[in-house]
Amino acid sequence: MRLKVKSISNIGGVVKAPPSKSYSHRAVILASLAEGTSKLYDMLFSEDTLASINVCKTLGAKITEKEDYLEVIGAGGKLHNSSIGPIDLANSGTTLRLMTSVSALSDNEVILTGDDSLQTRPMELLMGALDSLGVKTESINNNGKAPILIKPGYIGGETNISGSVSSQYISSILISSPLSQGGVTLFVLPEFKSRPYVDMTMDIMKKFGVKVLKGFYVKHDDCSKVHQSCRIDEFKIKKQSYKSCDYTIEGDYSSASYLLAAIAINGGNAKILNLFKKSKQGDKLILEILEKMGADINIYDDYVEISSDGNLKGIDIDLSNAPDLLITVAVLAAMAEGTTNITGVKHARVKETDRIDTTCKQLRKLNCRLEEFEDGMSITGGLSSGVVDSCGDHRLAMAFSLVGLKHDIEITNGEVFDVSFPNFIEAMADIGFELELV
Hints:
- α2 (47-58) runs parallel beside α3 (93-102) and α3 runs parallel beside α5.
- The chain folds into 2 domains: 2-18 and 251-437, Alpha-beta prism (UDP-n-acetylglucosamine1-carboxyvinyl-transferase, Chain), CATH 3.65.10.10; 21-247, UDP-n-acetylglucosamine1-carboxyvinyl-transferase, Chain (Alpha-beta prism), CATH 3.65.10.10.
- The protein is 28% helix and 26% strand.
- It has a 4-stranded mixed beta sheet. Strands 2-15-17-16 form a 4-stranded mixed beta sheet, with helices on one face.
- The longest helix is centred in the middle third of the chain and has 14 residues, at 253-266.
- The chain is α/β, with parallel strands linked by helices and 438 residues long.
- It has 12 helices and 24 strands.
């Protein structure tokens, strides 16, 4: 289906940010591992989070959607795979990575798979790190990717993993570690990208009763093949049990970035509710980005106000800790005056798509001047109307719809926003930007 603009009127108003996808994934997984019954309020029900809910059900949690919360009766760490075949995770890379470690806690084998896109995600780093902890995994197609067979058994001990590819590998090991036989010490080697996502993981683990001891040391010799000092992060997780709790999912800065960017591009005023000032989400960086580009931002305890005259300027920005903002920032850059240099997002090449490559290709279709680099891009403002393809990437579909505020735009395969933001069209309509699927 094609996503296109239906109408634009009086951009602004008050709208509630959707629940955080990252926290929703983690909350349902931890509740499923916990002892007792948890109530999860403001849970996001998207294609990705439904994949996590379904696999947790398959491994023994009892999950029921109530009128205003999700009830999860945890398996108490005693998982049992009730599936007679592979468990289909659709397109959820987060579910695949987090549940690969967790599946080793089952009393029988688990096979995790998904759609064609999911089967392109690299998994070798995680599988190698788990091997040192006594977790035996196998790439069924012998290519280091899904389908992944996970055998029962999780001894624990020491392991290390590079932090340069995906923070989800680190979160996966942290989440599963308390239920290993002997606990885990995890060393994260430089460069540690997307660190805030790991902070989010430890934050919610604490809410469910598990402590992670965090430290670091500095290595002074031959670090990363150059003679300089570098930081090695260390996480110690003793054998513990998760405890059930009532938990409210906070608003998602990633999804809210489209609402905020719409105001910044078009001009207007808006209040976005359910965005917390003290959030550990790395994508909170969108507020700093928009302010640097020329919007006025006011941050309160649980909401954000934005106003803009629609005149944005290019900036230099490192997105190493907020790679999910890449496409939004790229579209902002294309609609701003001057040149924007985006760096630090080499790890965005292993998302739903190679987001650097796909973003550049779609911007070129709109006659945008840009230069692509291994870890980012340089974009000079100015583009024209046209048709782009989401390439099956939910963030590309949503970000490129913003072009429609000032130019005619159609996005083919535009329905994929359901992956993370099911009510995207309704939320954008609340601020006066009406989109439709045709």
